[in-house]
Design a protein that fits this description.
CATH class: Mainly Alpha
Structural class: mainly alpha
CATH architecture: Up-down Bundle
Shape: globular
CATH topology: Growth Hormone, Chain: A
Distance between the termini: 22 Å
Largest sheet: none
Number of domains: 1
Number of strands: 0
CATH superfamily: MFS general substrate transporter like domains
Helix content: over 70%
Strand content: under 5%
């Protein structure tokens, strides 16, 4: 008689082709829509256009990240004990997408009014709250239906397809929607398009074939989940160090809303140019995503994280030397390659650093660290930009990311080469 674990593995293998197709289709539409909305080009410029303030840009992105920071543990507490995750994952994804719709409609009907500005910020906060929940659920579901030997392939191709689609759409979206001020607010019209594209991904995700969970945590509320964190870090020092790397490496997010604003001090920025830079950024990540996935399947995500974190750090250094459009383009190429690989590695490596039962909790706390930095960083960046200039933001990012790189190289092993499964079945009971 086969064990429950063996039965689960057989189920996953039986439906693997279908679930890979579902994941790729979901990524193509879902990620494309969200990347059109959240690219470090369109949204920051829109926020600056309606407010005229770098501080407001930083505040809006910080408050969105606050939402992302607050709710990952909620997501973990909602699913850690569940045998099936698909239904609740779909619900959180729908709620997340509706916030983009509300932002688009607010822009269309209220424009740059004070009330409209703050209503957009309100929906960005809600977007962050649902994102924090949804990311935990989505990654946990993916870990159930895609075995570790195929995650690099799936993640690489998901990002390849979505980045490619975004790259194709971005230039034309910028040149058509924004420069022609479609519907009276080209940015809002673009966000409306992003909502419809992202919504198509939900239809694909609903076709997932999910096995019942075998390795489960006991049911916990949010407070109990937080109280379990010290034990998680103490019993799994590899994950504890990775947690630090994810937080410090993500410090680059402090600078992201200001890349395009800094570029505007070196060149003229039209809607078409916004679209072009977005396309360059997305294409750069697109052409390397499959490479990162292939490297990860062969050698693990540790190598990918080291290389891409080093590249992101170098990109900030290169940005300090930029004088014109060519340097800006080079920066967005390097940043696109680095950011796509770093995120791929950060989200996948955490799945391997311990017992399966703890995956939702590890994903939650890792995202919470990244989003805490994302919450504080843009606000701090806005203050720095106003007081000291954009260049100081990039210097701070270089220093912090170099520290993260040192910790990663020196103290975080490749999880496939060491025993990091520290929770026993008895402990999970």
């Amino acid at each position: 008689m086969s064990s429950p674990e063996q039965e689960q593995e057989a189920f996953v293998d039986k439906h693997l082709k279908r679930n890979i197709a579902v994941q790729l289709t979901h990524g193509l539409f879902g990620q494309t829509g969200f990347r059109l909305f959240s690219a470090p080009t369109f949204l920051p410029v829109y926020l600056y256009t309606i407010s005229g303030s770098e501080f407001f840009v930083g505040l809006a992105r910080s408050l969105e990240a606050v939402g992302q920071m607050l709710t990952p543990m909620v997501g973990a507490s909602l699913i850690g004990h569940r045998r099936k995750l698909l239904g609740i994952t779909l619900a959180s994804s729908v709620l997340m997408r509706f916030q983009i719709l509300f932002i688009a409609l607010t822009g269309l009907f209220m424009g740059a009014t004070d009330f409209g500005m703050w209503l957009i910020v309100f929906f960005m906060v809600l977007l962050g709250l649902f994102q924090g929940i949804s990311v935990v659920m989505m990654n946990s579901l993916r870990a159930k239906v895609i075995p570790v030997r195929r995650r690099g392939f799936v993640t690489g191709w998901r990002n390849f397809l979505s980045n490619g689609a975004t790259a194709l759409l971005a230039y034309f979206a910028g040149a058509y929607f924004i420069d022609n001020n479609v519907l009276g607010d080209g940015y809002a019209a673009l966000f409306l398009l992003a909502f419809f594209i992202a919504s198509l991904g939900i239809i694909a995700l609903a076709l997932t074939k999910e096995p019942p969970g075998v390795s489960l945590r006991k049911r916990e509320n949010v407070i109990q989940s937080f109280r379990s964190l010290p034990d998680l870090f103490r019993e799994n020092p590899h994950f504890a160090r990775f947690f630090l790397v994810a937080a410090l490496g993500s410090f680059g997010r402090m600078a992201m809303p200001f890349y395009i604003l800094f570029a505007a001090t070196r060149m003229d920025i039209s809607g078409a140019m916004l679209g072009l830079l977005t396309t360059i950024w997305m294409l750069s990540g697109t052409v390397t995503n499959i490479l990162w996935g292939s490297i990860a399947d062969r050698s693990g995500y540790r190598l990918v994280m080291i290389v891409t974190l080093a590249m992101w750090t170098f990109a900030h250094f290169q940005l300090l030397l930029v004088e014109g459009i060519f340097g800006i383009i080079v920066f967005f190429v390097i940043f696109g390659v680095a950011f796509s690989g770093f995120n791929q590695a950060r989200m996948n490596m955490v799945l391997e650093l311990g017992a399966d039962a703890d995956i939702p909790l590890r994903v939650a706390v890792s995202n919470m660290a990244s989003n805490t930095v994302g919450a504080v960083g843009p606000l701090l960046g806005g203050v720095i930009a106003m007081a000291l200039g954009y260049e100081v933001i990039f210097v701070v990012c270089i220093v912090v990311q170099l520290i993260a790189l040192g910790v990663m190289i020196g103290f975080v092993p490749e999880p496939r080469h060491v025993n990091v499964v520290l929770t026993t079945d008895e402990d999970e009971a």
